[in-house]
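Lab manual, section 2.4: Encoding a predicted structure.

Procedure: take the sequence of the chain (1452 residues), apply the prediction step described in section 2.3, and record the output as C-alpha cells. A sample record is shown.
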Amino acid sequence: MVKTENESNMADSWRELFERSRLVPPPRNASRLAIENHFTQSNGFQLYLSRLTVAHLPQETSEAGQDVNYQLCVTLFDRSHQQFFGKTWKSQPQRMKNGKISFNQVLHFHTCLRFPSMVVVLELVSLSPKPDGSQQALGRGLTVLELFINRPEAQPADGDRRLNLYHGSPRNLLHPLLKDATDYSSLLKTIEGAHIDCAIKTHPALVPMMHLLPENVLVSGDDTIPGLAASPTGDALLKPQLLKMLPFTLSRLTVSLQPSLDKFESQLLQLINADCHSTKQPEDTLRTAVIQERRLHVGVHNGWCFLEKPQVVVLEPLTSGGRSRADSTSKQSKESSSTTPQTLGLRSSLELRLANHPALAIVFQLEYVFSAPIGPETMLSTTSTSRAAFLQSLRWGVWCPFQEPADWIGEEIQLVLQGGAKPNPYGVMVYSSEMPAKTQSPVPLGAAGTAQITDATDMLSFWLSSGLEKKEPSPKVSQKTKQKDVSSQRRSPTSPSKGRKYIPAASPPESPRGPGLSLSQLAATSHHPTSSHSSKVLPWQQSIPSLLHPSPLASAHQLSHVAGISVGNITHMEAALQPRGDVSPSAQDEGDQLEELPFTPVHAPVITAGMNEPSFCTVSSRRSLAHLYSAGFPNIVDHRGQAAEVLDPTEPMPFDPQCEDADPLQGNLLVFQFLAFTRIPTAGVCPDWPDNIYFTFQFYRFPPVTSQQLKLLSGEKVQQKSGSLLPCVLASINNDGTVNSDSPGLQVQFRVDEGFLRPGEKRWFLRYLALHTLHIDIWDSNSLLLIGSTAIELKYLLRQGKSAVQALHEVEVLTTDYVGEDPLLTTANLGQRSTVSPVTVHTIIRGRLHIRTGNIGCPVDPGKRRPADAMPTPSHIIAPQGVMGGFRGGSLSSRNILQLNARNTAQAHRLEIDGDRVPLYKHGIRGSTTMPREYNLNQSDEVSRKLNCMAAVRQREGKEDAKAAKVTDWNKRARSDKEVDQIKLNQERSKAEGIANMLMQAITTQHLLYASLGTAEYMEYVLKNPYNVPQTVSIHSDDPELSVLTNTEEWGYFKALTKTPTPLEENMFHLEEDAPEPRVYLRPKESVHIPLKYQSFLCDHTMAVQGPSFLPTGKGFRVAKKNLSNIVAAKTIKVTFKGENGKPMAICQVNVEPTPHVVDQTFRLYHPELSFLKKAIRLPPWHSPTVGEADDRNHISVRCSDPNIICQTSMLMPGEPQDVYLKVPGSPSPNIKMFFVMVFTDKWMAAPSQIWQIYVHFLERVDVSCVTGQRSCQSLVLRGRQAVRKVKCFSSHPKEIEVDPDGVFLLPPAAVQELQLKVQPWQAGSRFFYVSAVDVEQRQMVTAWLLCLNIHRPVLSKAFEVCVPVGGGRGSSKKITYTNPYTSSRTFLLRSDHPDLLQFKEDKFQISGGESYTIGLRFAPSQSSGSVEILVYVNNLEEKTEETFCVKVNYS
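Recorded output:
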C-alpha cells in the first residue's frame, strides 16, 4: 500500500516547481479592461535578448573586479497602474568581455493584455562575491521595452530593438512623475554608450501549450514545464510538442477526518457559529450555520497551473461498513452506532487525463458549503426562510503518480491531507483546526519505506487505474493498447479492480457531479436538507433531497446559456451518471472528460479536387462549325503568314521533350481566342440569359487576366428555324456601350521566350503545358455573379517541331448547386427526432464555351540569342570569391564611403546644407565657386582652405568700424575653431564607419535566388575558418524563412534532389540550450559546406476589384486587363557567421527575387458573412508506392498562404479517401477572401505537388421559409456608402426571385433603401440563391446576399394519373374541372413546376362564385418511358396557392 506523507513523501520536484512559479497577478483594472475590449484570446510572444554593450558602468568597484558577473532581470510592468506583475525572469550570470555581455536568451510568454501600457522592464544586475560565500546584487541600470504601440488592437511592435540603458533601478518607475510616461529619456538619465540589443515578435506556436503555462509568465528553454515534450534543439518552446495525455480512472475515493467525522464537523460548526454570534445581532436573529454540502475539487497541476479546470464532485457520508452499508436494512436497525458516519466517500469515479512526467500532480481540495439564515435587515430575499451560502476550504493534498518509484498500480493510495497557512495551488485560505500540534506533525517512515500513519491524521484514500483497462473493446481502445505507452507498461495483472464491474445492481448509486456554482447562486432558497449537529436526524437518514435551484440574483451572463426549466440545477438525487439529453449545458461543463473516439469531421458537402472538370471530348456539330467560321474570326498564322496546323482535341497528344528542345523556333506566342458561347436552358433563368459575360483566368505565372464585357450575338432568324441551339458569337463592347460587331471574339496573347524564362525553366514550362489545364471562370457582366467554370487542356499548345498549331475546343461550363431534400418528405416516422436533411451536390451545365488555342513559333536573333536551357543550371554552392585572403586595400575617399553607407551620404549632405550647425557654409561660398567632387578625409589643409575662403568673404562684406571689426574677427575665430572641431569629429566618425562598412563588404558574398510560393530552394555556403586556431561559429539568419538544415536526413534528401556532389557529414551541428542558432566547429583553415534552405508559404493576397475591365482607348478589341500577380515579396536576407568573439567571420547575403507560382486548380466558395467557413476538399487518389520504394511519397501535408486560415489533413489508412480541411474566418459582405493551399506529397515538402487558388465570397445571409408554387415576400436593406451610386439589383434565378425595384435607382450616401424580394420557388428542399446589388456605372459589386431557402411541398388537394404514349411526336390533352369555392367572382392563375412537360390552354381564367371551370392540359411528348409527378397550382392574383393538384404522368 502506498501512503503519501504530508512533507516527507510529497514530490519534491513538483513542490520546488510550485514554489518557484508563484506569480503576482496583473492589475484588476487591466484585466477588466481586457474583457471589456474582448481581448479574451491570449497571444504568444517571443523575446530574444542578444547582448549588452557598455563602455563603462557607474559605481564600479575594484574589489574582486575580475570576479564580477552580470545578470539580466526581466519583468512585466503596467505603467498606467504602476504595478509589476507576473514573475521576474533572471538570466544566468555572464562575464563581461571587451565591454560586451552576451546573453543569447529567448524568452516566451503569452498574454491577453494587449495594451500600449504593458511594457517589459529589463534590469542589469552585477553579482559580486562576498567573503561568506554569498553574492551581493547591485543594480547597474534599467531599460523599458514597449510591446504594443498605437492602439490596443494593433499588432505587437515586431522587429529588432536597441534600447538605451538608464541609471537607477526599476523602482524609479513607481514615481508619480513617470505614470503613463512614454518617453523616459527626458526623465531618466541615460548611461552613455550602454544599450541592449533585443528583438520581439509574435509566436503563434505557443497556442497549443498555453494551458500548461499561466499568462504573463516569462520562461526560457531552461525552465521545466511538465506536459511539454523535450526538444532535441534544447528549447522546447520554439516548436512545442505536447506529451500524450492518457486516460486514468480515480475510484473508491474516501476521506477520513480525525478524530471522527462527527466530532470534526461539530468542532467546525462550533467555531463558525461562535464567529457568527460574535457579531452584534438582535437576539431573535441569531444565526446558526449548518453544513449544506461537502465538495471535493480534483485537478491535474503541473507546478505552474492546472491543465484543465478542476472537477468538482459532491461527497457523501459513509458508515464504517463503507460501501456495503446498503446490503441490508436490518443490520442498520440493530445497532445505532453502526449507522454513524465515519468517512466521506465518492460513489462514482472520476476520469483524469495525465501525462508521464514526474512533476505532474493530482491536487485535491476538500471544501464545505455552509448556509446561514439571512437577517431581516438584508434585502437578498423577501422570504423569512432565506439562507445565505458561503464556502470554506478545509484540507488539501497533492500526489505525483509518476514520481519514481511508481508502485501504485493495483494498490490503494493513501494521501495525507494538510491545512493551515501554507501556499496551495487553489490560492485560498485553508482551515486549521485548534487541535494539538502533535496530530499535525509528520510521522517517520517505516523500514519498508511505507509511512506509518497514526489515527490522528486526516487521510484521503483512492484507487487509480488506467482508463484503457476498464473500457469495452473498441477500435479506438484496441489501437491504443498496442502502443507501448506508460499505462500498458505499468499495468498490473493482479489488480483487484481489473475486470470488475464497478456499478452492480445492489451497489449504492453514484455520487452526483458537483455544481461549481457561484456564491450568488448558492445564496438561493435551498430545498436541499442541510446538516446541523443540533438535530437528531442526520441528513443521510432523511428523505431523497430535491434540487438546488440557481439563485435569482445570479448575473445574466451566468444564465445566458440556460435553456429549459431545469438548466443550471444541480441534482442530488441518486441516479446514474450516464449523460442524458436533457442535462443542462452548465452541468455538462463540469462533467467528465470525454474520451476521444476515432472520428473524421464531415464538412458536407465535400468538394472533390479535379473531379468537377468538364469533359474535353465534346465535338461540335457541322452546323455549329459552319456558323462559327462564317463569323469572321481572325486566323492564326505562323511567322511566315501560313495557316497554323489544326489539331484535333479529341485525339491523344504525344509529347516528346527532345523534339521541343531541337525546335529552331525557340520563341512561343500563345494565343487564346474566345469565340462564342452556347446557352443551355436552365431552370429559374430566362432563355436569353446570359446577355453579357466576361472571363477571368491565369495562365502559367503570368498575372491574372480579367477581360472586358462581351456581348452574346445570336442569329435569331437562324435560331428560330432550327430546334438545336447555335453558339452565340462574342463581341466586345466599346466604352460608349456600343457593340463592336465588326471584329468578333476576344484574343489574348502571351509571349514566352528566353527573355521571359529564367535559366532552366523551359522544361518546367513544357511540363506545365503537357500536364496541366487552364481554369476559366465565366461571369455575368450585369449581375457580376458567377455563371460557371470550365477548363481546357493545354497539351494542344505543344508545337512538337511545327511552326504553329491551333485547336478548337468546345467545353462545358459547369456550376455546382447544393440541394437539400424536403425534411417533411424524408421523415418517415413522426416520432423520430428531426435530423439534418441530406444535401445533394448537383453539377449543372450552364452552357458551352467555344475557344480556340494556338501556339506560334517565333524565331530568335542569332546574335542576341540566349537559349534558356543552353545555359548551365545555377549552382547550389555559394563560394566566396577570394575575399578570405585579406583586404585588398584602396582609397577611403568620401565618394567610396558614401557609396558604401547610406548613413554617411545623409551625414555628408547634412554637413553641406545645414545652416544651423555650419553657418559659415551658408554665407561663405560664392555662386561661381565650384565644389570638388571628391574630398580626401586625410587632408586637413583642404578644410583650412575652405575656412579661409569663407572668412575672406565675410571680411569683404563687413563694413564696420575697426573696433567692431576686431570683435567680429575674434567671434569669427572662435566660431571657426568650434566648427573645425565639429568637422574633425564628423570626419573621424565617417572614416570609422567607412572602414567598418568596407570590411563588412569584403566578407559579404551576394547570391541571387529566384523563389516561388511553397517551393524550397536549397543552397550550400562554403564557410572557411581564416584563423590558425579552431573556431566555433554560430550561424544567425535575420529571416526565419531562410534556415540551416540541421537534420542529416533532410540534408541528404535535398542533396539528392538537387544533385549536389558535396560531402554529407553526420552530426555536423550542435545546438545549445542557451543559444537559439546552430553552431559548427571548424579546425584551423578548414572549409565546410553549410546547408541552407529558403522556403516561404506567405504571399500577397490583394485582389483586383470584381467586375469586367474597360476597353482601353486606342487599343484593339483583343485586349484584356492583366491584374497584379500574387507573388512572394522581394527581400534581402543576411546570414551571419560569427566567431567565438561575437564578430562576423563571413556574411552571405541572399537576394530573393519573386517568381509567380503555377495555379493548378481554382475553387470559388460562397458563405454567409462574419461566420467561419468549414469545408473539406477531397484529394484525388495518389499512386501507392511500389515495393521497396520509400513511404515518404505517400506522406501528404498541406500549407496555407494565409496564417489566419486553418488548413490541415490527417493520414488515413491506405485506400481511404483523404480530405483537406479548411476553416476560414468570415468577413463582411461583399468581401472576397483569396488564398492559396499547397499540397505536398514528400516528407520534407520540397515542392508542392498542387497549388489551389481558393476564393471565398462572403455574402449577407437571409433565411426564408416558403412553399413551392406560392409567392413569399422578404425585405432586404441596402445601405449607401460614401458616394452617390446608380444601383441595380439582380438575381441568380430571375424566374423564381424578383427584386423590387427592378430598374436602376439612385442610392445616396448613408441612405437606406428597402428592397422587396418576391420568392416563388418550384422545387422543394433546401436551396441557395444569390442576389446582388451592382453599381451600373463603375461595374462594381455594392452588396450581395445569400438566400437560404427552406422550401416545403404544399398540401395536395387532388391527385390524378394519366398515360402518355412514347414517341410519335404527339402529346396528350386532358381536362380537370375546378369549382370556385367563393361566393363572388374570382380570377385565378395556373402554374406548373414542369412547364416543359405541361402547358395550359389558358394560364389565367375568371369564374363566378360557385361555378366550375374546365382546365385544359397539354402534355408534351417524350422519347423515353418512365413516370413523373407534375404539380398544378391554382393561385390567386397575389400568387397565393388556392389548390394544388398532383398529376402523375406515365410515359409508356
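Check your result against the sample. The mean pLDDT is 75.
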